[in-house]
Amino acid sequence: MRFYNYIFSFLVGVVFCVSIFLLLGSRDTEQVREERPVVSAMTVTPEVPTTVVFCGKTIDLTRYNMHEGLDRELSSFTYFHSTTLLLFKRANRYFPLIEPILKEYGIPDDFKYLAVIESHLDPRVSSPARAVGTWQFLEATGKQYGLTITPTVDERCDVYKSTVAACKYLKDAYAKYKDWAVVASSYNAGMGRISGELEKQHVDHSLDLWLVEETTRYVYRIIAIKQIFEHPYKYGFVLRARDLYKPVDCKEVTVSRDIMDLADYAQKQGVTYADLKRFNPWLRDRKLQTAGKSYKLLIPQEEDMYYKTPNTKVHNPAWVVGN
Questions:
Q1: CATH 1.10.10.10: does it fit domain 51-243?
Q2: CA-CA distance, 141 to 152, in Å (whole number)?
């Protein structure tokens, strides 16, 4: 009988100990859940490099304002997902046009990222300040660098011609400053403003200037989008070849006479008026007045205007993973 009493007492003790353990464990689990709850997604701050290379020159980013300046722009582009994804997709169509022109004029390839942040690679975009096109020229500056702007023509929206004009501006700025990062700042603020502030603030580089917020952020935005374009997967962007926008083959038609009805002209070319405007965004009106000049109209090829098969043209293999 004593043996059975001993066994009973032992079992009661075990049950008690297990109950206490489970109770304490439950409390510990609840505490862990409160301190580190299960989340459906994680927001991770992007890595900020200590140095970057811009236009062949290494820039030290360890100074507090430079580290924080790039951190802000990397965070913005990394978590503004829809816009940044569109930039990759559009770049597949427009970088093949922009890069050869930069090379021809001796402008560093990194300046294609200036076009990215200026217009999001939308040739038709205009700003509240009335800057227009891929490179966001004001009318006076556009005319200064050889672009035709009339009631029916605005070559600021011509990707090829506006890139040539941008190259001319950048060459002039480099002849003045001998530093490409300062040149980039001047593209936003103007050479007069940058030169004046360098003198007034007694510094040698635009990254050391106290400027309005837009200009202060400008070079960091260029560097940030370059970082993301060169390392998309590192910053959370996963694209396939078929996700990128395909370049559309076009035939060139030289026009030297006025066209009084562009919709009628488009129909004769076998395209819609909308297609004619999309591929020639420099056409400002329903008619074209040439004023004695010749213009090249791009006519998209019918068979190349459809995504019947996935896009396979990838301008930069680093942008995509797999198929």
A1: no
A2: 18
